[in-house]
Amino acid sequence: MKVAIHQPNFMPWAGYFYKILMADIFIFFDTVQFPRGKSYCSRVKIKAPEGAKWLTVPVSGKGKMLQIKDVQMSGGAWTKKHLGTLKACYGKTPYFNEIFPGIENIYASAGQYIADFNIQLISYMANILEARTKFIHASNLQVQAGDTGGYIINLVKSVGGSIYISGQGAGTGRYLVEQNFKKAGVKLELFNYVYPRYQQLWGDFVPGLSVADILFNTGPQARDLILSGGIKE
């Protein structure tokens, strides 16, 4: 059983969905502290006529050391602004009219908590990508938090996982100690991710954008494009 774990980010990039597509179970790591600084939990890059720009969800209380699941979105005017920005940036893409209504509905019913909002968007986009992955909230598992590495191992084992899928970002090395996973009977499956190229609007290709960019521009090709970016170690 392959398991991947990640914070519930806001409309994340293709590498995030690569992990989802490769995993049998994906655990939303909503029990860790919401980052105090700028975070992909509340912002992502999209492509505008003038180039890449940030789309940011305003939140309150992120300096209070709250868990991600407890952080609330602030204000209400931003939802209308976001939808207008997405229309302006992607309204002329080939698959906008197929994909945007679902996003619009999620925005229309956005509640208080950013984790819930992000997970709804991720689930919607994963469904478009025909992911067969089971989604679980870490907060719904009876696993005691501890140091990050040990906590991840315990989460994986709690759902019957035998393989943990992970990228190799800058912070990963702090807690992915292969010997500890091996002792626990969990195999590490590491990968690097190379952002796939495809036809975009607005000039030169820009990598690393929200998965929404791939979906709006490529539609049914998006799944294969996303899977093509993973390079296993």
Q: Which series of helices and strands comes N to C?
A: EHEEEEEHHHEHEHEHHE
Termini Cα gap = 19 Å
The major β-sheet equals: 6 strands, mixed
Q: Give the strand tally.
A: 10
- Rg: 18 Å
Kindly estimate the percentage of residues that lie in beta strands according to DSSP. Answer: 15-25%
Global geometry: globular
Residues in helices, as a percent range: 25-40%
Q: Which spans of ≥5 residues are poorly predicted at pLDDT below 50?
A: none
Number of domains: 1
| Strand order, largest beta sheet | 7-2-1-8-9-10
The assigned structural class equals: alpha/beta
Structure annotation, total helices: 8
Protein name: WbqC-like protein family protein
InterPro entries: WbqC
Structure, explained:
- By secondary structure, the protein is an alpha/beta fold.
- It has one domain.
- Helix content is about 35%, strand content about 20%.
- It contains 8 helices and 10 strands.
- It has a 6-stranded mixed beta sheet, sandwiched between helices. Strands 3-4 form a two-stranded antiparallel sheet.
- Helix 2 runs antiparallel to helix 3 and helix 3 runs antiparallel to helix 4.
- The longest helix has 15 residues, at about 115-130.
- It is globular.
- This is WbqC-like protein family protein.
- InterPro entries: WbqC.
- It comes from Desulfoscipio geothermicus DSM 3669.
- It holds the Pfam family WbqC.
